[in-house]
Amino acid sequence: LFTGLALAAPAFAKKAPPVPPPTPSEQVIAAERAFDAFTATHGYNKGFNAYSATDALSFDPAPERIHDKTAVALASDPTDKPSPLAWWPSRIGISSSGDLAYSFGGWTWSDGSGAVAESGWFLTIWQKQADGSWKWVIDNTAGKGPVSALPAMSPTYTDFIPHGTSDSPGTAAGEMTAADASLNKALNLQAAATAYNGFLVPPSIVGQDDIAPAQTLETRLPILDSRPQGLAWVAQGQGVSKAGDFGYTWGQAASDNHDAVVQGYYIRVWRKDGPNVSDWHIIADIYHPLKPTA
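Structure (tokenized):
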């Protein structure tokens, strides 16, 4: 009798509630971690090709069409060694429409013995594709520093969802690029620390090659003060979310004369924090100065 009751008991047991699908922010974190794991196993070219959008740009320091570059490399040699590059997301931000996001975290590069030879931070911009997958569209380092200074591998923190929207993605793109142009004009005429007034908010990330990125006012100022003055800053690309509350711009900084020699490249992540055109703020700003040629 007791055996029969025991066997029958599962029929009356409550079913476990269904597991909710991952949120868009959880999808981005999962994509970033899967990208790292795939690259570690299958190699740099295969990983960066598989997880990048067809028009993706990687800045090192100048922009490269990395999807095309890795496709060419794989076509000539399909073998690929496991990559010594490893990384993890420590912070992300995402649009309210769940289709555009950034991830920020730490990376390490190991030598042949497995010891860490280089380390630093990265910033990647992700876009949801028509098939529901996530591919990155912008990837770049956000500074360098010792492993001890890098963020923890977990947990991953998520910025609050933007609460300011625009009439349409087209309107948002116009507002955001106007804000970008306004900052670029100010950078040509003023010191960076002054020009960025009103564009940065407390959680803004400011980064530059070879130094640690800053996430507080006190640490942002020295980085901004080191940026060159009197250059012509010009946007060359942008993207915006369907909700019109989140986007990115990138461009170049060149000498402000007839030669217009390129001095570096910038990437900015923007978020709209209110209903007004003036409510666009920079959440992340990375500058890549070109190293002088010998």
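The first helix runs from residue 2 to 12. The mean pLDDT is 91.
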